Structures are given as structure tokens and as C-alpha cells.
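Field reference: sequence -> structure
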Amino acid sequence: MRALNLPADKAFRSAMYNGVILDNWELEYYSTHFEDEASFQEVIGAQSALAQWTALQVEQLSNEKFSNSKAAELAGELIRRAYIDSYANPHYGAIALAFWFYQFDADNWFSFEQVRKEAEKYLGYYPDWDNRLELHLFKGFEYGGVLARAITGQGLPVVVNYSERRVTIWVAQLND
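Structure field:
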């Protein structure tokens, strides 16, 4: 359920730190709001456009974090070539997002079902189709040393939020 005008990304991150993941996790998001529908549609209108936009964002974020332009450029190229699994259905997307977390270190850091439940609340934050959130998972992309330092998983979750006209890149790391 929506929490009093709290953006979906912020609500999800807060819920995850409320007893789902521990303090040894770092869960960050990088969200871009599009002022007009035309520029939003330009980015999300095709998977290739979303991949290009995501690659540019990853390059910029990586340069800001690590000041290594060659690694950033390589990361961008890998994003452009990555296979993308897309989930418009909150239930299926929640399973994929929970599995993404599970692949970090498949032990007892959290309950898979708790993560799935919070992910489904997040991806179903707005109940109608026109205001949906879609998960796009860039498969196989390893962002350790590019967007994070510690233990990272494979894949890069990107969420398209139609209601808020936002595209969000999620990055997590386990400081084990």
C-alpha cells in the first residue's frame, strides 16, 4: 500500500531495512525523474533505448564512484549487450528481484519470502496498469568494482515507474 506520497523507491528501500535485510547490506538506488512524457517515452519506448540510457547512467555513476573511465566505458558496453528480462507483472518481478538478492550469498542473511513480499509491494505500489512499475533485469552484468566494492550479485535491476515518470537503477552489496 502507498505511504502518503512517499516515492515508491524510497518506500521500498525503507521497508527492506525494516527487518528484512541487515545492516551489513548496502542497498542504494539512483533515480531519474523525467519532466515530460515525451522524454520519458524516448528512454523507455524500446529495450534498446532503455539499455542505452542505462549504459550512460552506469558510466556516469562509475566515474563518480571510482574515477576509472576505462572501467566505466567497459561497464556501459556490457550493459548495452546484456540480455534483459522484463517483468510488468508485480508478482513475477518480485520473484526475480528476490532471486537477485538471494544470489549474492545464498545463506541465511534474510528470508527469501520476506524479500519477495516487499518486492511485490514495491512493484505493485500503484495498482493500475497505466501507473505500473516494471522490473528490467540486465542479466549477467557484474558491477563489482564498477558501482560497488564488496560482494555483489549478478545482474542489474532497473525499474521503470510509469506513475512517477522515473527510471531507477538499483545497486546492492553485502559487506560480509
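Note: The longest strand covers residues 133-142.
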